[in-house]
Each structure stands twice: as structure tokens, then as C-alpha cells.
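User: Hi! Is it possible to get a structure for several chains at once, not just one? Here's what I have:
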Amino acid sequence: MAGVRWGAARRREQTARQAEFTAFVETTAPRLRRTAYLMCRDWHLAQDLTQTTFAKMYVNWGRIRHTTNLDAYSRRVLMNVVFDQAKRRSADEVVLAELPEAAPRRVDDTAELHVTLLRALATLPLRDQAIVVLRHWEDQSVEAVASTLGVSVSVVKTQNARALTRLRAVLGQDFVRI
Amino acid sequence: MDQNLRMLFDRAIVDEPALPSTDLAGAAMAAGTSLRRRRQRLVTAGAAAVAAIAAVGVVNVAAPPQRSAPAPTTVPAAFGMLVNKVCEFPARTTVTDAVVFLADNVTDQQRDEVNRALNANPAIRTVAFESREEALAKFRRMYADAPDLVASVRASQFPESYRIRLVAREQFATLKGPLKRMPGVDEIIGIDCPAGTNASAVD
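Assistant: Yes, the chains can be modeled jointly so their relative placement is included. Here is the combined structure:
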């Protein structure tokens, strides 16, 4: 009898867990995918990275679902997935990036402009890209960024300042024009 | 300046395609489940343990006061789940912690002897006794969201145990045999916890 009751309880718990996870995925997917896109500049890849992030989170869902900050956790998992992917790709692919060294010609339409920002971002080391994206796109505090990336607060501060200087140089006028 | 950057980011995602209409969560759950298979051994152990608890529940409900009957040997393994979920239990390779489950009919003297032996062992850093009531309290915390399960267990169904932390990872093999042969000891199970975590922290 206890066994039957227990089975029912377990099923109910599992259903509740899955419902919770589904709700989490639905509310988080757009945000995660955008962040992933800013990191990899490819919507398809961003979709895959997001999917991998959710799968990894589901593995530990029972343990993490009551943690206070699932969003922060999801950012950390995503960034690890992004770093892993980049490492794997650099191992079997030669990327010949054409890096904009000076300010490009004046650009007016937004399509051109966004390519410019993302290309400028691409000139930074991956970790610095992550710092800029988390700090200025996700609006995370220096402390939050540090804990997401597992680096010290001072690393975030100095690398962020350096990255912004670099972006400003690469973007030239566009950075301040808007 | 931040404001500018924010706007540049907003513009960078203007060509965002719609999310695919496929079941994102379902796909993640399927992929997550197959990732989890790597931990199959653990999961299987856990499921068997849960089944054992349920079985003990049935036995106890059916025939309550038979205290003298020896507990089934699988019972202590059932309470392995009273271990921090970040730890591997039972440990496969190296061991940082261990649980010494006492026999159901352990005497006061045997319990003291085991305690003395554990405390005298230089390979063991800390020793903590866990009573049946403490085990039940832990179980309640871990299964707070399964009230039916919690309602069906009683303190008497949990074994007493000593929770020990080892000085070094390599010492479990040599330590286990002699301890297990002591009267009053039912089973010793190794746990592997990541650095900085506590095997007994269950929530």
C-alpha cells in the first residue's frame, strides 16, 4: 500500500518537476538565445547552444530547481557551453576573420551598424566578449559577472575597461554617434 | 556610453528569428536524460534504494512490532540518499567520506566500541553519530515535496549510523574491512564528495 502511495507521489513530483522545467525554459529561452547570439554571431548556433544549456540544466534540475538564482545559474552554464564550443571549433576549423582595424566608413542603416558592433566584439578575446555581453547587455553587476565567469572582480573591472576602449577604437564614431 | 552600447546591442539582434516551434523543453529533457545516463549506476542505486524504503514500509505496516527480526540487508543502502546530492554515492573510485550503518539490533556497548574504534583511527578526520530520529528529519527535508512518502516512514525504519570524513582519499579500502567485521556494524558505504562540500548537507 505504501508502495502504491509512494509511486503516485513520485509520479506527481516528477510531473510537477517537468512542468516547472517547461515554464523555466519558456521564460528563459529568448534571453539565453540572444546572449548566445551575441557571443557567437550565428542564430542557428545560438539556438543549439541554448538547447545544450537547457539539457545540461535538466540533468541537475532536481538539485538546482530551488536555488535562489536560476537565471544566474543559466548564464553560467551557457557561458561554459559557449567556451566549450569555441574551444572545439578552434581545434578543427581555421577562421580567417577580417578584423576591422580602423573605424569603418560612415554607416547609416542599422543592418550595417549591427554587423559592425558584432564584428568589433569578435576582435576581443572570448572571455572579454563574455564580460562585455554580461555587463552591458545582461546588465549584470561586476560581482555577478565575476561569479558567472569564475574570475575575480578586479579582472572583470580591468578587462571590461580595456574591452570598451578597444570597442570604441574599432567602432570609431559610431560608438558615440548614437 | 553604456547607454550607447545598450542601443548597439539592441540593434545587433534586430534580425532575431522566431524561436522554433518545436518543444524546446521536451527536447532538452530528452537530451538531458541521455546525458544523465552517464550516471546510470548512481540512478539505479537510488531507485533500488527508494524501492527498498517502500518495501520496508510495506513490511512494517503489515507486521509492526517484530523488532527482533533482522532487517533485510539492503535496508542501509536505501538510506544512501541521505547524502548530499553533489556527492557520488556509493563512490566508484576514490572516497572522501563514508557512512557506517549500524545493525538494527546493535547494543549500547557495540555502538560505543565502534565509536571508540572510529575515533582512534588516524585515517579518520571526523566522526558524527546520526540517530534514527536525525535520519528521519533529514529524510523529511529531502522529500518535503513528497508528503505521502514522508508520511509512510517512521524513525524506527532508519538505521543508526556514523558519518565519517577521511583524512585522505586512498584510505578507504584498508579501513573498510576491519570495521565491517566489528559486531554491531551492518554496512560501510563510501562517498565521494567534491572539495569544499559536506556529505551530510542534504538541502
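Chain A has a mean pLDDT of 82. Residues 103 and 169 of chain A are 7 Å apart (CA to CA).

User: Great, thank you!
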